[in-house]
């Protein structure tokens, strides 16, 4: 079946603009993660959803970052008043497990955000 | 605090050679250690993973060696091929927690010359 999809694939924003990044997880996957990958670095955790509940947002770098998953499927990561340091690839991953287990996290292709 | 340290940062290997990437972790609560492969413009894809109850896991040309007492694990790619050229990330996770977030190393850029 289809994997995790993300849109847009590329986004260029002027500093101060708001952006919204979309993630379509694999159908039926309970868990959804957002990660931020700076150039030349490994992905870093931002936030985690189990169904529609946001159980962990400890990785969000500031209150300008907001994520939602209102119906337990599609998720949106919103960044308000973008800054140059927000430039990165934003990765979404989904998994078919809830608490407990060793199931794989499947990653989408990411959205490359460039803030000018 | 970097919880998963990965080395080397980059690696060049000749076709047919062995590629070895090493990782070390701090958090003893980690109990799941996957390796991800990432090609340019793509998301990371799971390559192979190990739990700490075994010291080695092999899948085809890829082997993970795990040393629980040293808190280290490594990826060995046998008979390396040009198609293996990619960035490799080790990761770790505490599967007993309420959150399965992966903690990644900084990555190793592998180049396999023909």
Folded structure, characterized:
The complex is a heterodimer of chains A (116) and B (114). Chain A is mainly β and 116 residues long. Chain A has strands at residues 5-7, 10-13, 19-24, 31-37, 44-50, 53-56, 65-68, 75-79, 88-95, 106-107, 111-115. In chain A, the strands form two sheets. In chain A, strands 2, 4, 5, 6, 9, 10 and 11 form a seven-stranded mixed sheet that branches. A four-stranded antiparallel sheet of chain A has the order 1-3-8-7, with no helix packed on it. With 114 residues, chain B is an all-beta fold. Chain B has no helices and eleven strands. Chain B has strands spanning 4-7, 10-14, 19-25, 33-38, 45-50, 56-59, 62-67, 72-77, 86-92, 103-104, 108-113. The model of chain B has no long low-confidence stretch (mean pLDDT 93).
Residue stretches of chain A low in confidence (pLDDT < 50, at least 5 long) are none
H-E string of chain B: EEEEEEEEEEE
Structural class of chain B: mainly beta
Q: Can you give the helix content of chain A as a percent range?
A: under 10%
Major sheet characteristics of chain B: 6 strands, mixed
Oligomer: heterodimer
Low-confidence stretches of chain B: none
Number of strands of chain A: 11
Mean pLDDT across all residues of chain A, rounded?
Answer: 93
How many H/I helical runs of chain B?
Answer: 0
The total count of helices of chain A amounts to 0
**DSSP strand content of chain A:** over 45%
Largest sheet of chain A: 7 strands, mixed
| Rg measurement of chain A, Å | 13 Å
Order of helices and strands of chain A: EEEEEEEEEEE
Task: Note the overall shape of chain A.
Answer: globular
- Global outline of chain B: globular
* Residues in β-strands, percent of chain B: over 45%
Q: Approximately how much helix is present in the residues of chain B? A: under 10%
